[in-house]
Amino acid sequence: MKFETIIRRGTLGLVLAGLLAASAWAQSSSGSASGSSTAPASTPDAKSDRRDIRHDLNKDRRDRNADNRDIRHDRADVRQDRKELKEDNKEFGKNSAQSQAERNDIRQDARDIHKDVRDRNADNRDIRHDRRELHRDRKDANRDRHEK
């Protein structure tokens, strides 16, 4: 590699690093060289953040409840399909088209149950995360109030 190419790339790297540092400093909350934030915790922005977290928390709870409802309905449907499968097996035989259709319906309902369980678990994870985040925000706000 030529000496000029090395110098050019090195200079370009230093310029980019400087630009990144300047943009990070410009985006800091106070813009001061110390980097410490003097914004109180009860600013409209902090209240808006907490409101957004509570909104997400309530949305996740509604989603979880809907998933639980779907799971209950699908499980009841599976129970009913199994009864019908038993009756179809007695009446038409185990290899009949009616029995095959019932087995396919049971398989589809089982897939739906598993999908809803995964969704419910994801919603529970999101709820735990949102509650933890809300708790941290409240704790930070209280700490900032007491430091004044």
Helix content: over 70%
In terms of DSSP E residues, the strand content is under 5%
Mean pLDDT across every amino acid position: 85
Shape: elongated
Please give the domain count. Answer: 1
Q: Total number of helical segments?
A: 3
Query: What structural class is derived from the secondary structure elements?
Result: mainly alpha
Q: Which stretches of 5+ consecutive residues score pLDDT under 50? A: 31-41
Alpha carbon gap, first and last residue: 59 Å
Radius of gyration computed on alpha carbons: 29 Å
Can you summarize the main beta sheet? none
The ordered H/E elements are HHH
In total, the number of strands is: 0
Structural write-up:
With 148 residues, the chain is mainly α. It has one domain (42-147). It contains 3 helices and no strands. It has helices at residues 3-26, 44-92, 97-147. The longest helix is centred in the last third of the chain and has 51 residues, at 97-147. The model is unreliable at 31-41 (pLDDT under 50).
Descriptive key words:
148 residues, mainly alpha, 3 helices, 84% helix, elongated
In terms of topology, how is this protein built?
Blueprint: H1 3-26, H2 44-92, H3 97-147
Summarize the structure in short.
It contains 3 helices and no strands. It is mostly helical.
